[in-house]
Write a structure and sequence with these properties.
Helix 4 links the parallel strand 5 and strand 6. Helix content is 51%, strand content 14%. With 282 residues, it is of the alpha/beta class. The chain contains eleven helices and eight strands.
């Protein structure tokens, strides 16, 4: 049976999420926590359980298909898997011709030219690359807008993504692959480093529960210092490093192991793979 929220009258300025997965859920929650009215948000999600959870948890209108709601959208957030984006956009084409909403894509590897082709007309389109810390309101998102997106539409897009963390505008779309490699994939790099530090501490004799607690808190504290101090990472690193001390010895080991070169190689590999994934959508 349809949820009661499916029959709810919608308010003007409606933002419609196509897809109700984790990232969409985090953005919906962040918007409502920040004061956006639930009546100005709707979610299209085919999965019954996911749809019901969104309606229950946030009070937003939910729909199994876009047919009943897309015509009323002022903003459409494309939050589906990249593999089904072509089909989704072609299904939306007839619904967006009159109102010409802002199209906001959070799908990795899908270019604006592809969205334009699949939607079949010129629309304001903003491509974004959020990351998983958006789920806890600590995300980092790169954004790129096409020429049809004016300042008001850019502000709309930024407000939606900024509800879940920091944002940064990119002036050339090809740089989105670098954004993906840095912040999109970046949380996994830090998880790997903390995992390695935890294992190293266990090898030195610390209990794993203690090693994990100290490693994770150190990661959190260092991250907060980076964000809140406004200092460059090199400045903060130098303040911690006493000449001939323990930190200097550890940093020398990182340098000998080629940490900087390895990081550059990893980011380059992610950039190349991002381009390959984008090309595969053609």
């Amino acid at each position: 049976m349809p949820s009661n929220s499916e029959s709810r009258t919608q308010a003007p300025g409606l933002t419609v999420f196509i897809g109700g997965g984790n990232m969409a859920r985090s953005l919906v929650g962040a918007l409502i926590h920040g004061g956006t009215a639930a009546t100005s948000i709707a979610v299209v999600e085919p999965n019954d359980a996911t749809r019901e959870a969104l309606a229950r948890d946030f009070g937003v209108a939910v729909h199994a298909t876009a047919d009943a709601i897309a015509n009323d959208a002022d903003v459409i957030v494309l939050a589906t898997k990249p593999q089904v984006m072509k089909e989704v956009c072609r299904g939306l084409a007839a619904h967006v011709a009159d109102r010409k909403p802002l199209i906001l894509s959070i799908a990795a590897g899908v270019r604006i030219a592809q969205l334009r082709e699949w939607l079949g007309l010129e629309l304001p389109i903003v491509r974004t690359m959020p990351n998983t810390p958006a789920l806890i309101g600590a995300g980092a998102t790169g954004l790129f807008a096409n020429d049809a997106t004016d300042s008001a539409r850019r502000a709309q897009a930024e407000a939606i993504l900024a509800a879940a963390g920091r944002t940064a505008w990119i002036e050339r779309e090809e740089l989105m692959d670098a954004v993906t490699a840095l912040s999109g994939s970046g949380p996994a790099y830090f998880f790997l480093l903390v995992e390695a530090l935890e294992d190293a501490a266990v090898a030195q004799g610390l209990p794993r529960v203690t090693a994990r607690a100290l490693a994770t808190q150190t990661c959190l504290g260092a991250g907060r210092m980076l964000v809140e101090s406004g200092e460059a990472p090199a400045v903060l690193r130098e303040r911690v490093t006493s000449p001939n001390g323990t930190t200097a010895a550890a940093l020398d080991a990182f340098a000998t192991g080629g940490l900087r070169e390895l990081a550059a190689k990893a980011v380059d590999a992610a950039v190349v793979r991002g381009r390959e994934l984008s090309a595969s959508q053609d």
